[in-house]
């Protein structure tokens, strides 16, 4: 599935749900801090989306889409504890792109793949204004955290660690 298809699937989902959202065009950018500056909001209002590889045991590997505030990092230990896993790390780029159906820097806080479970930090869904790249480097989306939670139906758990140094 291409980024363009993922983008259209997102817009179709939003339109069908009737939630309010706004599209924002900007210069192509995927880095959280830089795109927040282009959009003109604090990084705490951004959804940073990271695909994780969770090795539960020798035979079981799961993939998790971790969604944390843009000014925080994902707490890998918290995710490991959540799944009682042996190991948690970042997915390789090819797997992340295949499961997220978009390239790094454009990963949505939504999953359109049954093999990718979404876990969002409570601070994300609490945002009155939540920004994220819309499966494209040159377009972002603004919606409320509450509408995001209702539509994406993420598992809501404390997975955000301290801000990067």
Helices and strands in order, then pairings?
Blueprint: H1 3-17, E1 22-25, H2 32-39, E2 47-55, E3 61-69, E4 73-74, H3 76-83, E5 87-90, H4 93-100, E6 116-120, H5 122-125, E7 130-136, E8 139-143, H6 145-152, E9 155-156, E10 160-161
Parallel strand pairs: 3-6, 6-9
Antiparallel strand pairs: 1-8, 2-3, 2-5, 4-10, 7-8
Rg estimate, integer Å: 15 Å
Biggest beta sheet summary: 5 strands, mixed
Number of strands: 10
Alpha-beta classification = alpha+beta
Distance between the amino and carboxyl termini: 35 Å
If strands are numbered along the chain, what order do they take across the biggest sheet? 5-2-3-6-9
Total number of helical segments?
6
Topology as H/E string? HEHEEEHEHEHEEHEE
Mean pLDDT: 95
Helical content class: 25-40%
- Beta-strand residue percentage: 25-35%
Cα shape: globular
Low-confidence stretches: none
Polypeptide structure, described:
The protein is an alpha+beta fold and 165 residues long. The chain is built from six helices and ten strands. The strands form three sheets. The chain has a five-stranded mixed sheet. A hairpin with a 5-residue loop joins β2 (47-55) and β3 (61-69). The longest helix has 15 residues, at 3-17. It is globular, with a radius of gyration of 15 Å. The mean pLDDT is 95.
């Amino acid at each position: 599935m291409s980024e363009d298809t993922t983008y259209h699937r997102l817009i179709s989902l939003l339109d069908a749900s009737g939630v309010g959202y706004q599209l924002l065009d900007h210069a192509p950018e995927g880095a959280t801090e830089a795109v927040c500056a282009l959009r003109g909001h604090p990084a705490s209002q951004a959804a940073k989306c990271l695909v994780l590889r969770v090795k539960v045991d020798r035979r079981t590997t799961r993939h998790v889409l971790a969604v944390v505030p843009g000014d925080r990092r994902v707490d890998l230990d918290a995710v490991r504890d959540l799944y009682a896993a042996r190991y948690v790390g970042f997915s390789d780029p090819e797997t992340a792109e295949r499961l997220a159906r978009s390239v790094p820097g454009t990963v949505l806080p939504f999953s359109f793949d049954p093999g990718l479970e979404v876990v969002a930090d409570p601070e994300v869904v609490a945002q009155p204004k939540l920004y994220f790249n819309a499966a494209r480097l040159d377009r972002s989306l603004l919606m409320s955290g509450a509408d995001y939670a209702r539509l994406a139906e993420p598992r809501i758990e404390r997975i955000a660690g301290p801000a990067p140094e």
